[in-house]
């Protein structure tokens, strides 16, 4: 509203001032409302833009979710495989330990023979004809011929034999302790001392 329009209507100056002040308040309120509306529109447009971005993120994450699910499945498969391998290794170690215990009391002619028998026992343990048999039974089957006699060249002869004769031929007399000690040492027999109290 313009002052000239109010003057043409024949209004007094102080009435024009009051009308203009009131009109100014209305205009300011409308400007504020317009600015608020513009801010609200901008905020709503930003929210719409943010929602669009969130939707895109959700779309991507659902795609990533499929990739994540595939990765989880792959890791679960790998874990199952690793667990099966681990359990197989544990089973193998237990078998080897039990076989080693069985073989520990035996004296083989050499280490190669011992390892060969051990390998054959490992193969035989899981076979159908060995079910229900102990490791000692499996060892017996592997080291005996069809006639039931031990196969040669597997176990060393562990029967105690006479010591070899001394370098001089005959053993010394039992009352000659220095010569007896020397003879036992040459024969590789440890001297055991008996202490009387």
Report on the structure:
The mean pLDDT is 77. This protein starts with a helix and ends in a 10-residue tail after the last helix. The protein has 197 residues and is an all-alpha fold. It has helices at residues 3-8, 13-104, 111-125, 135-143, 177-187. Helix 2 packs across helix 3 and helix 3 (111-125) crosses helix 4.
SSE inventory with pairings:
Layout: H1 3-8, H2 13-104, H3 111-125, H4 135-143, H5 177-187
Helix pairs in contact: 2-3, 3-4
State the main characteristics.
197 residues
Structural class: mainly alpha
- Tally of alpha and pi helices: 5
Q: Considering DSSP H and I runs of 4 or more, what fraction of the residues is helical?
A: 55-70%
Number of strands: 0
The best one-word shape is rod-shaped
Sheet with the most strands, sense and barrel status: none
Report low-confidence residues grouped into runs of 5 or more. none
Q: State the separation between the terminal residues, measured CA to CA.
A: 137 Å
- Mean pLDDT equals 77
Radius of gyration from CA coordinates: 52 Å
Amount of beta strand: under 5%
Order of helices and strands: HHHHH
């Amino acid at each position: 509203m313009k002052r000239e329009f109010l003057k043409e209507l024949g209004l007094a100056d102080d009435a024009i001032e009051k009308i203009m002040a009131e009109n100014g308040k209305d205009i300011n309120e409308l400007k504020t409302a317009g600015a608020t509306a513009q801010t609200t529109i901008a905020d709503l447009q930003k929210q719409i833009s943010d929602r669009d971005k969130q939707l895109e993120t959700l779309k991507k994450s659902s795609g990533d979710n499929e990739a994540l699910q595939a990765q989880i499945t792959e890791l679960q498969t790998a874990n199952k495989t690793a667990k099966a391998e681990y359990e197989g290794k544990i089973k193998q170690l237990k078998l080897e330990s039990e076989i080693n215990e069985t073989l520990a009391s035996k004296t083989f002619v050499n280490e190669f023979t011992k390892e060969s028998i051990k390998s054959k026992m490992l193969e035989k343990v899981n076979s159908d004809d060995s079910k229900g048999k102990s490791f000692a039974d499996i060892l017996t089957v592997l080291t005996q011929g069809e006639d039931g006699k031990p196969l040669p060249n597997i176990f060393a002869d562990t029967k105690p034999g006479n010591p070899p004769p001394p370098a001089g031929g005959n053993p010394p007399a039992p009352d000659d302790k220095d010569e007896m000690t020397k003879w036992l040492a040459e024969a590789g027999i440890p001297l055991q001392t008996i202490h009387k109290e």
